[in-house]
Amino acid sequence: MPTILGANSVRETGYNVDNSLRFDAASSSKITRTISSSGSTKIFTTSFWMKLSAYGTNDAMPFGVDPDGSFGNNMITMEINADRKMRLDAYISGAYVFRLRTKRLFRDESAFYHIVFAVDTSQSTEANRVRLYVNGVEETDLDSASYPSLNTDININNSGNIINFGGRSGTFFPGYLCEVAYIDGAQLAPTDFGEFDSNSPTIWKPKEFKDDVTFGTNGSYLEFKDSSALGDDTSGNGNDFSLTNLAAIDQCVDTCTNNFCTFTSTHPTASNFTLSEGNCKVNKSGSGTFGLYGTNIMLSKGKWYFEVKFTADAGSDRTRAGVAAFESVTSNSTSTIQGNFSGFEFTCTTSGRFNIITAGSNNEIDGFNSYSTGDIIQFALDMDNTKLYVGINGNFFNYSSSNTGGDPSSGSGFVTNSATVLAAPVTIYAGHSVGVSGTSTLEYNFGNPSFSISSGNSDSEGFGNFEFSVPSGYFAICTKNLAEYGG
Question: In this structure, are 197 and 300 located in the same domain?
Answer without folding.
Answer: no
